[in-house]
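### Sample
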Amino acid sequence: MKTLKHENVGISTFLAFALIPISGFAMDVYIPSFPHMASELHLSESDIKLTLTVYLVSYGLSQLFVGSISDSFGRYRINLISLLVLFLSSLGIAWSSNIHVILSLRLIQAIAISFIVVCKRAFFVDVFTGEKQKNYTSMVTVVWSTAPILAPFVGGFLQEAFGWRANFYFLALYALILLILEWIYSGETLPKKQPFKLKSVMSMYRELLNATDFSLGILVLGLSYSMIMVFSMNIAFIVEHEHHLTAVYSGYCALISGLAMFFGGLWSKKQINKPIYQKLQLSIRSQFIILAIMLSTALLFHQLYIMMAFVFLIHFWLGFSYNTYFTYSLTSRPHYAATASGLASGGSYVIFSIASYVVVNLIDIKDQLTLGLAYLVLLVCVRLTLIVVRQALQKAPTVA
């Protein structure tokens, strides 16, 4: 087995950070193309949104078990195989016009990406220790949030210049370049493999899920990101159908959302040593204040830029919350690095993919008011969960 060489730690760290956003790119890059896909493939809006939901559910569910597989069989070979699968599945989607084929390939693509991301998140726990480990782990969600910044922005221009299939050619090229670089410079980082025994795996899951702060944290992460997902699933239709603008403007709006998440994550990293519940309380209160103003002014203003100003502020605090709790979930269980990472991320993906799909089908989101109402439903759920989280965190005073 090829192990990571000391002289390649620097470039391998760079490659790990380069791969972290790949799940977001696969999720967001083709969002500006939704209306055009629906038109070209003669499908409904719901059918096109389903391609995203299938990806999210598959990505989330697969992360529930890929972490334990990685802890048992290592990171390096799994990562290379997964990058190859991502490359081939992206080409398959680009060449297909059949919705059933596209849905099947999105499912396969999501499983491959879950292996890639879980292995690379665990990389920082495998290779680094102490404050360096904590800082790098905190940077994971900050770097991941670059995908919502760049992906729809890139996707909007690809759509206008070449059409929706170009988005998946872009993903294929991304996977191929990283596959070659990983093969040359990376290596195995897992210091000690855990025996893959179903009983041991289930024991790890029970230990993690029986920790109330961890299990409820998954719910907080999922419900919080549902608000981002609700926005992402509807912004292209709002921009193109309600405001009669092009896909490029959908990319601009997604860029604003992504920047908000990015800066929120950076601010969370700056506050890394402050009590976790204090930070979560600040975030939730700020979001309620912003949302109250957003809803109260919705009937007075109908401009897209005003709606996006509220979106930026709310998504800033969502990025802050997500980074805060995700960092806590990973660093509090370093002995189960990949399993905790997969369970936290995978569980939250399952929650927000289902929650966001339910909300967008219950509420016809077409403007500032309806978007604000969708946010309100999810924010109330987050607040109720945090009440229980507080009690769990009070039992762990060393981290709370």
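The mean pLDDT is 83. This sample (Bcr/CflA family efflux MFS transporter) is used throughout the tutorial notebook.
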